[in-house]
Amino acid sequence: MSTILPEPHAYRPGKLARLKEGLRYQGGIGQWSWLLHRVTGVGILIFLIIHVLDTFFVVFNPALYDHTVAIYGGVFDGQYFWPLRWAFRLAELGLMATVLYHAINGVRVILFDFWSEGCKYQKESFLAVMIVFLALMVPAAVVVIMPLASSPDHMVKVPANTPNP
Amino acid sequence: MSEELTDPTKGYLSTRILTVQLKRYDPEKDREPHWQEFKVEARPIDRVLDVLMKVKWDQDDTIGLRKSCGQGICGSDAMRINGQNNLACKMLVQNLKSDKLTVEPILGLPVIKDLIVDMKPFFDHYKSIMPFLVNTDPAPTTERLQTPAQRERFDEGTKCILCACCTTACPPFWGNREYVGPAAIVNAHRFIFDSRDQAASERLEILNDAEGVWRCRTVFNCTSACPRGIKVTQLISEVKRALITGVLDMPQEAEVLA
Amino acid sequence: MARNRIKPQGGFELTAWYFMRISGLALVFLAVGHLFIMHIANNVENINYAFVAGRWANPRTGWIWRLWDMSMIALAMFHGFNGLRQILDEHVHGAKARVAMHTTLWAVMTTLLVLGTYAIWMFQVDKAYVEQFKAMNPGAGSHASVK
After folding, report:
1. What pLDDT is recorded for position A94?
2. C5, C9, C89 member nearest B243 (Cβ)
3. How far is C54 from chain B (nearest CA, A)?
4. Which end of chain C, N or C, is less packed with Cβ atoms under 10 Å?
């Protein structure tokens, strides 16, 4: 009598497992700058979709547009909420950092592609990216955060009804 | 004799206890791989391969791994060592930063057993780029001559030993097995930029594809993983530039040879 | 020698790859410039309908801002959605799933691009609303001047 053994199968991790295993890879600067580039890219795209939709309010409902952008100043439904203002300020700073990183690192990637010496300076160029990023981001952060030191100079009031143009 | 050679606590005679984390997978029993820990006494001049063989000989003989020459030439013992792809025979214990050693199979290819992966998809990609010299001219009575500069042009790609360290370090390849992968592009580059070869257009046509060079995201994991020190990303960029410009950046044939 | 010239290559992936670089360079100026104007040169809390009207409907410089915003949204949309397509192509492999994914992406992109284009070129100032807004917010709108 013979026993029939189950046929041995090869193991291939699923999509999630491969992602997890991939994140454990010690690829160094190249891998992390690429991952950050990808994550910031998706983040900017999500923001862009929201931004296109909210800007579309200007053509069909100015009051709705003003009501929406007033949230930036912490004013929602005619009332002022300081945590809202802080949250939007910090998110604004995050957006600027995201776009700046994607832009500067994007230039770095273009240098790899179109400058024949570019690939030789892979790690050094990331240092340059970080220096330029910080040089632009620190003053920007000061400008963006400064208004939080004082309360808003006025409360935005949005007209309730939109007169027809 | 110097102290280093006689004192058992110093130099090449000294030993340290390594904690080896090994990723095990038995296709007949396991559904998923799991980690197993071993303690191994190792000398500074031991290779990681020696450490693994010590485990296999003294502690658990069921461990499966490929090895052949043990000198970084055959390319059969590629594995992920301490998080980065390398050949087990190219890494010395004295170069380990800590006493911890993590060894697992390379990612992206199906695992057959423990550290052995199925290399077929990898070699299929390699074959797809026509890795052989194509020259339809009548064979000369002597060699097909090249200037030293022309030979130098594709020298980088000739170092490849097809160990798959680069391809299985590539995040786009982890996601998508259809991607031709860095190793195949390096070997295409070796023939595309060879002045004796006449099939550059065909190879570029094959690589000019969503699953060809354009899948490369310049992550540089391939370059840092290559045990032969090939500047893989640089070579891929050169292939991309040839596709974009339609010009092969090669040294001109010297008149002396004509 | 002529051997160095090869058959010129083309194709969608090559064009898409090239486009990502060119549009990326343009967006470095357009998008970072836009951020600078909106968040550094101006306080974002002062941006409102009157501010937008003052830019787009300005008789002298309005067309420059509209052209700027138009090129920015068009390049950013193609750049962003093509980038997302490239990411998803790495993870979506089935032929049918890919067709579905590409169709969805391009459809969403086209919709957004049409919305944006409509807003930029069809914008007309609602003067009555601006007057009403200014009357209600006498302290605000120092940046917004509607002509």
Report:
1. 96
2. C9
3. 42
4. N
Task: Return d(Cα A80, Cα C132) in angstroms, integer.
Answer: 21
Give the H/E segment covering residue B111: strand B111-113
Closest by Cα among B102, A31, B227, A113 to C22: A113
Q: Given the structure tokens 């003989």, which residue do they identify?
A: B61
Q: Quick one: B125 and B241 in the same domain?
A: yes
Q: Read off the DSSP letter of residue A6.
A: P
Q: Suggest the residue from C19, C25, C44, C49 to mutate for an interface test with chain A (most A CBs closer than 10 A).
A: C49
Do the domain assignments include residue C135? no
β-bridge partners, B36: B22
- How far is B192 from B186, CA to CA, in rounded Å? 10
* Any domain includes A157: no
CA distance B43 to chain A (A): 25
Residue B71 lies in a domain: yes
Among A52-61, C113-122, C135-144, the range scoring the smallest mean pLDDT is C135-144
3-state DSSP call for residue B227? coil
- Rounded to 5°, the CA angle B18-B21-B24 comes to 140
φ/ψ region of B162 (left if φ > 0, alpha if ψ in -120 to 50, else beta) reads left
Mean pLDDT across A108-115: 95
| Parent domain of A134 | 29-147
How many angstroms separate the CA atoms of B131 and B123, rounded? 11
State whether B90 and B124 are in the same domain: no
Chain B neighbors (3+ CB pairs < 8 Å):
A, C
A41-50 mean pLDDT? 96
Which among B162, B42, B122, B23 has a CA at the least distance from the CA of B80? Answer: B23
B209 — contact with chain C (CB < 8 Å)? yes
Interface touch A34/B171, C-beta < 8 Å: yes
- pLDDT, mean of residues B205-211: 91
**Which residue matches tokens 């690192």?**
A105
Q: In C, residues 46-85, which contact A (CB 8 Å cutoff)? A: 47-49, 52-53, 73, 76-77, 80-81, 83-84
Q: Which helix (H) or strand (E) holds B19?
A: strand B16-24
Contacting residues of A for C30, CB less than 8 Å apart = none
Domain holding C15, by residue range, is 11-41+58-123
| B244 touches C16 (CB < 8 A) | no
Question: How much is the pLDDT for B2?
Answer: 63
Structurally, chain C folds into a number of domains equal to 1
The nearest CA of chain B is from the CA of C12 a distance in Å of 8
* ipTM at complex level: 0.89
Q: Compare all CA atoms of chain A with the CA of B103 and give the residue at the minimum distance.
A: A25
Does residue B214 belong to the interface with chain C, where contact is any CB pair within 8 Å? Answer: yes
Domain range holding B206? 120-249
Q: Is residue A41 part of a domain?
A: yes
Q: For residue C80, give how far its alpha carbon lies from the nearest alpha carbon of chain A (Å).
A: 6
Computed from CA positions of residues C63, C69, C72, C75, in that sequence, does the dihedral angle turn out positive or negative? Answer: negative
Q: Which helix (H) or strand (E) covers residue A101, if one does?
A: helix A82-114
With respect to residue A78, please indicate whether it lies within any of the assigned structural domains.
Answer: yes
pLDDT, residue A150, reads: 79
Contact (CB, 8 A) for A152 and A85: yes
Residue A125 lies in a domain: yes
C49-54 mean pLDDT: 91
